[in-house]
Amino acid sequence: MMDPQSSLNSLQLCDSEATEAADGSIDLPVPQKILISNISCDSFKISWDMDSRGSERITHYFIDLNKTENKSSNKFKHKDVPTKLVAKAVPLPMTVRGHWFLSPRTEYTVSVQTAGKQPDGEYAVSQWSEVIELCTADYSTVHLNQLLQKAEAIAGRMLPFTVFYRNQEKDYFQQASPSYRSRDAQCHRMLPAVKDNSGSHGSPISGKLEGVFFSCNTEFNTGKPPQDSPYGPFRFQIKADVLFNQNTNVYFGDFYCMYTSYHYVILVLAPEGSDGDAFCKGRLPALDGSDNRFLICTEEDDGSLSFRHAQDVILEVVYTEPVDLSSGTVAQISGQQLMSQSTVNAKKDPSCKICNISVGR
């Protein structure tokens, strides 16, 4: 028998010839009570019970692994012949791993059959087990640190800035705005809203973290915010030190592109001890607010704070607490709405070598 760890290298796509069963003359036990454990963004462990009768004839396990969304149709499958992962029979539990067929935060169905390889190279197989559903996990901090390192490599030099800004449609900033769930019209506040599913598929903040999105990038020639925006012609501006100061923790959330030459970095600004801060601790890499490659706040000799942002990435900053509109100003911008730059539910380019890591999108 092989060592369990060696099974990691035994999983491979089975070719069409190997998937066809022999005459079934060997009675092989059917896997029962499938148990899935240790689920990560690109692996899981699987074990099961089975009758000992005929178990000595088992040489391989066939694992049918499918994305739930593709249950009804899969153009890569021959009719009635499932695409299997093939592993030599090893002690259970067995680890199923592979970035090329497992994606983060994705639902799969799994079923198993035992197989015995015959002298002619064909397989005798058991019946399929029950079908089990699982969902792979978010990126771990290890994976996020890999993304962070890739983002740091292209961040570029730092440029000064003085304000954070947020663009929206005019109605968003008006007192009565019942159509915007992220606005509290009565209290005149912008409220945290759940982040959409744009960016890396495995980012822990997508669909979970609540916050208010801001930008801080400036135009190289003016040092001021650009006059164009994909999110609306009205802009709320707030002094940088209101949101970012020495009581604010900074976390790295994501790094991605959308089939374009420019890349986005998502940072989270969370006041110390806030609910957002509690969410980020242990989930996201923490950055030194005064010494990182993306967004820094430094104290000058006179006690004032100065701010700089990375030049070569587009920063999306998530502030985790409500923001009073009275703490800033709202004015119409003179530029256009560049809808092609909107990141709302935007999908990450899975082929980009700059912003992808080995565990998928």
Automatic annotation (TrEMBL):
Pfam families: fn3 (PF00041), PHYHIP_C (PF19281). PROSITE patterns: FN3 (PS50853). Residues 30-139 form the Fibronectin type-III domain. Transmembrane segments: none annotated. One of its GO terms (cellular component) is cytoplasm. Gene3D superfamilies: Immunoglobulins. May play a role in the development of the central system. Belongs to the PHYHIP family. This is Fibronectin type-III domain-containing protein. It comes from Zoarces viviparus.
